[in-house]
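hey m, so remember when u said the tokens were messed up on ur end? i reran from scratch. heres the input so u can diff it against urs
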Amino acid sequence: MSNETGESLTYVQPFPNIDDGQWRVSPVAGAYPVWSPDGRELFYLGPPTPDLMSVQVETEPTFSARTPELLFGLSGYNIFQNNRRQFDGAPGGDRFVLLKPSVSRQMDDVDALIGMVVVENWFEELKDRVPVP
């Protein structure tokens, strides 16, 4: 991600040989990129709401990127909070994890940024509460 043009855009560069090229993958604004587990897809936040975008890429024999596609909109998710990416892809490549602030707190409330609730063994509790016929 770079804002060298004055707008956040998503690029790909080889590593560690960063002087071997740079390819822009977001045609318009793009921020907080993350690779898919298999390395064949790049996800990033794009305008306008923001939206989660996906772009298929190939790295051999040379780098190429297809036209980005909308995966889903993220209105209601404050995923630009504190200039940190608030989403990630799951290791299997079939799900995403998104952080969403509590609706009971104001978005500028510092306390809303300080806690996290982790529920363990929720499936066992679900089985107790919802009997299977």
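this time it looks ok to me. The helical segments are 122-129. if urs says something different then somethings off w ur setup not the seq
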